[in-house]
Every structure is written in structure tokens, then in C-alpha cells.
Amino acid sequence: MKQWFGKAAALSVAAAVGLTAMSGALLANPYEKYKGTTIVVSWPALSHFKAAETLVEEFTEETGIEVEIDALQYLKLRDRQILEMSRDEGEYDIVSWVVMWKGEYVSKGLLTPLSQFFTNGALVDPQYDIDDIADAYLQNGGIVGGTKGYMPGKSGALYGVPFGAETSILAYRTDVFEELGLEPPKTYDELVSVSKMIKEKKGMGALTSRGKTGHQVTAAWLLHLAPLGGKIFDDEWNPVINSPEAVKAAEVLRTVSNTGPTGIPSYGFSEMSAAFLQGDAAMYLDSLKIAAMSRNPKLSKVDGKVGFALHPVGSRCGSETGGFAMGIPANSLNKEAAFLFVQYMTSKAGDKRMVELGGDPIRLSTLNHPEFVKQFPEYPVVAEQLPCADPDWRPLIPEWNELNIDVLGQALTKVITTDGPIQPIMDEANEKARAIMAREGYYAWSDYRK
Amino acid sequence: MSGVVLRDVVKAYGDVVIIPKLDLEIYEGEFVVIVGPSGCGKSTTLRMIAGLEMVTSGEISIAGKDVTYAQPKARDIAMVFQSYALYPHMDVAGNMSFALRLARVPKAEIAERVQRAAEMLELTPYLDRKPKDLSGGQRQRVAMGRSIVRDAYCFLFDEPLSNLDAKLRATMRTELAILHKKLERTMVYVTHDQIEAMTMADRIVIMKDGVIQQIGSPREVYTAPENLFVAGFIGSPSMNLMDAELTRNNGALYVKGQGFELPVPGRLQERADTAKKSNIVLGLRPEHFSAADRGNGAFAPIELAVDVAEYIGSSQFIAASVGGKNLTAAVEVGPDAAPMESGTYYFDTERLYLFDRESGQAL
Amino acid sequence: MAEETLITAGKAKTGGRTLTPYFFVLPAGIVMIAGLLYPVADAFYLSFYDWKIGTKFAKAEFVGFDNYIRMFSDPDVRESIWVTFRFGFWTILIEMIVGVSLALLLEKPIRGASLFRTIFILPLMVSPVVVGLIWRYLFDARVGWINYYLGYLGIEPQVWLGDAELAFFAIVFTDIWQWTPFIFIIVIAGLQALPSEVLEASRIDGANWWQQIFLVKLPMIRSILLIALLMRLIDVFRALEVMYILTGGGPGRATELLSLHIYNRAFDAQLLGYASAISVLLISIVFLLSLGILVVGNPMKEKSDI
Question: Residue C53 and residue A79: Cβ atoms within 8 Å?
């Protein structure tokens, strides 16, 4: 009896060892281990992400990892994500953030550095080729902790991969420009003179622009700030929004508002783009999204009459980058599976597939793909524009919200709705900005050195 | 012509005619009570005099002035409403002086007139109270005071006492009568209560279905009702009306019905002769019954089967039947008398009424 | 005798005092505490902390009266209060005048009055968010109907929502559009409940149309007018959705009512503690205003007037 029991035990141990060995051998499929896992994705209900849903289904089919999508209205996204990520065990395994939020998420300790996955040979696809991802997008959306905390630099680390990222380009009405014998403006001087000419000769709005109080009007100003050589802060966190460059950008904004379609001080993004798409403005300077929108007959009356050009250059070339990046919350319970998802969605194949599904590419190989170039005239422009993108076109620090909305949003409204001199307005804003930074302790180092 | 005169007045709401045609002349200084059941058009008549309702056709004149289409304020009238209609946001003095203030009467005069009216109505201690802090009787007096202060040519009263309890109502009736004597103004008073009409009126106007049935002094309408309606309406308890026919017996004229036969008095003989003999209504006022023959020859016996006798002190109300028909009698007996029983009672035939059943008119 | 026994029995149960009334208001009391006092107390508590969304409250820093000190020296808060008072003054003034006038005009059962009444109260049925959207499109500078029809009159297109004065006009106008019917309904209900005899008495007393309105009708519905005023006043301090959608408080702070200011501070600038401190200020202002109105003329006190 005893003997029999011992034999059986030995056998079962052997069987167990054998099974383990066998399963080890089966790990030829990197996804196998996570089959049946369910990961939850939080992203905005925007067109790029709508398009991504098909690719998510294909991911589940291929890998066996189930994905639950929690698509929220853009405005509600951050509050919800922060709420989930600040719990001990969060619901979300993947969050998609607007680049603006990355500093806040990392400073609050809510995200997982991606290095811990890129060091895991079993997870990383050797053909992933992270260098193929547009550098501006990766730096802007994914890297946190470099220079000033949000720019690239040795102290930075990768927290996310861009997905649904975008840059700014100039779109213009080929028919209007031809009629007036104009060339699309290459410099800011040309932009200003072309704007005045269009308004004068054609009576239509020249450049459409956002202008609503708050972050919208600030966004419009920032478009011009970087190319004109301005910045929000110097290297010591002193605000420089009253510098000659910044004042010049505000002047440009005022000209744009005066020569643009009626109502710019009340425009948000949708009103601004609608003015162009419905033929009330001859130029558009903002997110590349306009390209896809102009081809959508439901939105656009100008399909076929739109050309694309680089963001005009001032003292330097400096377009904006923005949009979304994806990363993994620190409190996720399925981090490896989540990484596999991020990798899949942003791989070369995934990126091409996204374009086929109607999304926006993040990889140079996709932007330069001959087939797509034929189909999407803006792709070469975007590819050329991206190296120009200024990662410091606005600071990504928690205080930015207040500066953006309360300080700049107010001052710039004054710029475009009044006629008085601009310098004093910007001087006052600069003082307010300085007070906020002082309150938040940014000058501790410079005070200490005194 | 002075007084209040309504000439050929018609009031209709669309197709519904409330008052077919009304002529009424109220003399200056007279107290006229318009009485009738609800819906008879008495309030409408009063409101037309007030100018709150417009006549459909016809004319109204007050103090000799044609006011048919004049605004209420141009008619020199004052009105007291059933609900008193006081202004809740003004105190008693404010309520009483409102019309004077609108008319821009000098302040001193207003104060004096309010003071006088308040004294007359014993309202002086309450002048700065709001209506909600007053009792029903006091509110009623304020409503009167509001009219008195006006010193209008004509006072209109729309059932002013019907929201008061019985005792207060009796007191106010007296006060109103006194007031009329003091003020010597024309007063038109509408009520459904014939006692109010009888006690206060110089003349009573009895209305039914928009038509005046009779106009006369209280005595006239009581002693000589012109038709069945007036006969039944005036008097309390109301007149007993019984189907009857006229018969001749030994040359004498009798009115005969189920269970009774009474001689027709001399004053009616002539007219009864010419009337249809078989289509008569006999009217007997309860108070003209008697327990005993008073022996002046006018009293005729009548057999009553008494159902119940109500003791009310100096007399008793008897609910009885004659020939199977219900009848009320009030007989004077001593306060110590036992409840009255069935038997022979007597009726003062000098005071019986005969009506033509078809036309309803008195013979 | 029997009655007497009953009364003494009732008294005996509670030892001379009766607790029954308190028992009946208990549920209402609990709802009040849970639904009203708790959030207010919480906001008050929060106003002493510097708490950022996304961090644990345990980590929030206690800052004492810092938020209050900052608030009283903050020109933006002052400006926002000023905007709110101006907004309240104009909207309530015009709503009261227009609402009461319409009610007086449509009080009599003239032909079509019920149709007009129905049309007039329609704006009340529309949710504030939809009101905001409707008027945002109507006021739109480029495609809005208002500019379109003004174009027929030869008037240049105006930037309704992007100009400080026009935007203020726009929110006042929108509020009047939506809330005049509220005054209208309340006043017309009050007017129709007025005893007709009192109005007739005033006609006989010699009041003309104007005098009847100003000396009789309006004073008689005074308590109703006060309640309507009070409710609108409180609403002005609660108004958020329409302005949020219509202008977002802009341009500048031209249309940033105090409630919207709090919202922007709390959720855009993420200053929860500071926003709570301003909320406490808002509650205090509303409380004082309500108290003032109740002291001037308690509408409950004169309920039995009519």
C-alpha cells in the first residue's frame, strides 16, 4: 500500500516536470502566455480611435488577448483616468493621454516606465524599430523627465508610445490662390501680407484660427510663437511671454483675427475648421486632421480645392506636435499583456493598417510609403514637417493649465478683441505667470543661489 | 328723471338670454331689495347698474344721467360685495380711503371722512389693522365704510350679509336700515333671503328667470302677491298651495279640494265668478290658521291630520296633511299648551288667495 | 367628558410635551442633512486644503486660510462677482418686467391666449445644455441666423460671442429668453387666483387700468413676486450650463459668472481647495441675499392674505 502510494507520487511529479518543460517549449508564440487575459483600454471617442477598433479586434483574434475598450468623451477622459490610476488597483491597463497630461501623470506616479518591458526579450519584437517612429512624436508624447521634465534629454525616460499623434501644417485653397496669383506663404512675413491681400482683394476670410477665451486662443498664439522664435519660459523657468518674439506672435494673431473669417474670438477647434471647410477662409494652420476632414463630403465643401504646405517659417521652422500617446498605468494588473497591445498597435504593420482603416500614422515608413503618398497628398508635407517640430512649443508642467487658461487665455483674448498696444497686455500676463511659478516653488533654486 | 332707471334692459351671453327685457325704476333715496332664487338674474341686474356688466341692449340712467356705457367709476355708485372684496394689502383706513385717494381728494378731507365713517361703524380702533386681522363682521363693516366714505349717489349691495352667521346677520340688517335712514341715499340691495328683503326694503323687486314678478312694498307683496311664484317666495314659512276648484252651494261660492271646502271671501267673489271653475290653486298662509274659531264669521273649519307639532314658544308649527296633501300651519297657543293634535282647525278665509293654475296669476 | 379623557390621554404619553411633530419632520431633516449640509460642510472643509485632482486627499496640504486670503485679493474673483451681479441685475430686472407684462396681457381669456401661453412657456421645457447649443448656433458669427438676418438690414456681421459687450448681451438675452416664461407662469397663476370681486371693487372705486395693476393687482401678488424673485436670484448664482456652452466665460472673463469661475478653477486649473473656498463665498452670498429678501418681506408670512 505504502509502496504504491510512493510510486504514484513519483509519477505525478515526473508528469508535472514534463508538462512544465513542454509548455516552455511552446512559448515560441510570445502571446501564448497571456491568452485569455482581458486588458482594459481607456481612450477618447475620436475618429482615430474609432478606426482603431477594427485593429483591436484583429489583435484579439491573433493573440487571444481580450480587449475591453472604454471610449470616453475627450473632456471627461482625464478625470476618469486619474481617478482609476490613483486607486490601489486600477481598472485600466492602458491609458491614452493628450501629450499635455504626461507630465502630470508621471509626477503623480501614475505611469509605468516602458524600459521595464523593453528590457524583456520575451516581450519585445526585434522588428519593432522604434527609430522609425517620428522622433518629434515620440519625444513629445512618450518621453518624460528630460530637460525641464517634459523635453527630450538624458534624464528622461519613455513612458508611452504615440498613437493618434499629429503635427501642424498649412492647408490652403488652391483655387483662391490661383485666382489671385498667389503662392502659399513660406514665411511669416508672407503669411501676413498674403492674409491682408486675400481679405482686401477677395473679401473672404484669409487664415482661420481658434480664438475662444481659454486654451483655444492660447493654442492659436502658440502656433505662431515657436516659429517666430518665442518661448514661454527661459531655462530658469522665468516666463518670457512679454519678449519681443512673443509680442510679435500676438501681433500676428491679431492680424489673423482681423483678416480671418468673422467671429474668430468665439471659435473653438470645430468652428475654426468649419470656417475653412465651408469655404469662408482661404487658409488653415493647425492640426493635420484637416486633410482627412477636407475629403469628407459631410464636413467639407472644398474637397479637391485644398493644397498643403509646410507651417510657415519665422526666425526658425517650428511646427507643433500634439495628439495622443499610449502607456501603461502603474496600478495595472496586466502590464505585460498591455505592452504587447501597445507594441502591436504601433508596429510597422499596425501603423499601415491604421492608415487603411482611416487613422493617422506615426511612422516615417508609413508616411513615405509610395502607395499612401499617392492617396494622401499631405503625407510628404507631414514627413517633411515633422523634423521641424519644436518639442518645447509649450511647457508640459502641471501649472500649464492655469497659465494656459487663466493667464494667457485671458491676455490673448484682450489682444484680439481690443485695439490697444499689445506689450502692456503681455507684460501684465508675464507678471501673473511669474506669480504662479513663484507660488509653486519654481524659483527655489535661483533664490537659493542668490 | 332722478333715481336709478333701467329701461328695456336685455342681457344675453351669446345665445343664452339671462334677462329678456327688464324695466325698473328706483326712486331717489329709496331702499330697494331685489330678491329671487339663485340664477334669477338679480346679481346680473345689480352688476349692470354698477357697470361691471354691459347691457346687451336697453338703457340705464342714474341720477338722470345716461350711464349705459359709462365706466363704473363714472356712475357715482358704491358697492358692497358678498365676499367684502377688501384690499388685503391695505389697512382699514387705506381700504376706506382708496377711492378718495384715486379721486385726489385733499388729504385733510379724506382723513375727516374716514374718521366720520369709522365712528359711524364703530371701526375707529381698527383703522390701522389689515383685513386679515379682523373678524367677519368687522370686515363687513369696513366694506360698508368704504362705500359710505365715497358718499356716492347710489349704494349697491350684492348679498352682503350671506357670509355672516345668523345672529350677526340680524344685527347688521338693523344697522343697514339705520344707515339708510342716516344717509338718505338710494340703495339697491340684492339677496336671496326674503326675510332681509321684508325687513329692510322700502320696495321689494321679486325676480324669477330674468323677469320681474312683482314690485311693491313688503306689505303689498305679502298681502297681495300677484302670482303663484311671489306667493310661494314671500313669507316664512311659505304659503301652502293646494289644487282646488270653485263650487257654488246654495248661491254661495266655495273653494273645494281634497279634504276641504272653504267659502270664498267677498273681495274675491266677483273675479272668481268669471274664472274657470275647475283650474284653481288655493293659497293658505300658515300663520292664518287658528286653533279656535275667532268668531267674526270669517273663520271656516278645516280638518288637519297632524304629523308633528314643533314648539316655538308662543306658537306651534304644525306639519299636517289635508286630503293626503302636506300642509304647514302656525297656530298661536299659549306657551304651556300641549303639542297640538289632529282635529278641527280654523282658517281666516278673509286671507285666502286664489290663483289661476294655468297662468299662475292671482284672481 | 369623553373628549376630555382623550386629551389628557394624549398629553400623558409624552409627559405634557408632544414629540410627534418632530417625528414627522425627521425624514425631511435627514434628507436636508445628507443632501445639503454634508456637501456644504465638505466644501468648507476642503477649502482649507491645497488638493490637486489625482492625488490622494491624505497627501493634500493643509493651508489654513491661505485660500481665503488669496480669494479676497484675487481680482479675477472680484471681476467674476461683479459680472454675476450685473448679469443678475439685468436678467432679473428685464425678466420681471417682461414676464409680469406678458402675464398681465395674457391674463384675460382672449382668443388665442392659451396658444400664446403654451408658446411662451416652451423655453422652460428645454434643457439648459440644449439652450446653450441653440443660442450658440444662433449667435454664431459666421453661420448664425442672427447675423444672417441682420445682414438683410444692412448690419455688418457681429462677433456676438467673441466681443466682451456683445457676449454679455448674448448671455443676458439667452437667460431672459429661457427664464421670462418662469416669471410669466408664476405671475399668471397668481393673477388668475386673485378674487375677481376685489378687482371689481377697485374699478368701482375709480381705479383705471394702470392704477388697478400697480395699486391692486401687483401688491396683491407681492408675495408671489417675491418668491419668483428669490428663486431667480438663487438661479443666477447657480447658472452654469448655458454660459459654459455659449461662451465658456469668455471672451476674457466678460461672461464668467461666479459658478462658472468656480468650475473653471476646479476642473481646468485643478485648484480644488481654492475653488471650494470660492464656493463657500458663493454660498454665503446666496444665503445673505435670501435672508435679506425674507427679512424685507417674508412670502410665507402673508400666505393667508387673499
Answer: yes
